[in-house]
Amino acid sequence: MSVVVYSMPACPQCTATCRELSKRRLDYEVVDLTADHEALAMVRGLGYKQAPIVVAGREHWSGYRPDRIKALAAAAVPAQV
């Protein structure tokens, strides 16, 4: 699953989100909203006004959400038989 973090420089919630994704060993891409105007228009089109915005497959959310990141990590682990 592709995970993209749309962030801004010096954003504590963005840093915490990336740290949590790394801690859970999830691969992700970071897009700087101050440098990518198309990405900014896209997240605004989704209705978001606060960074970070995380897009993971069909799911997306705004802000630091360790509960959502934990659920992503759990979904990424193959079921044990």
Automatic annotation (TrEMBL):
PROSITE patterns: GLUTAREDOXIN_2 (PS51354). It comes from Georgenia yuyongxinii. Residues 3-61 form the Glutaredoxin domain. Gene3D superfamilies: Glutaredoxin. This is NrdH-redoxin. One of its GO terms (molecular function) is electron transfer activity. InterPro entries: Glutaredoxin, Grx-like_ET, Thioredoxin-like_sf. One of its GO terms (biological process) is cell redox homeostasis. It comes from the Bacteria.
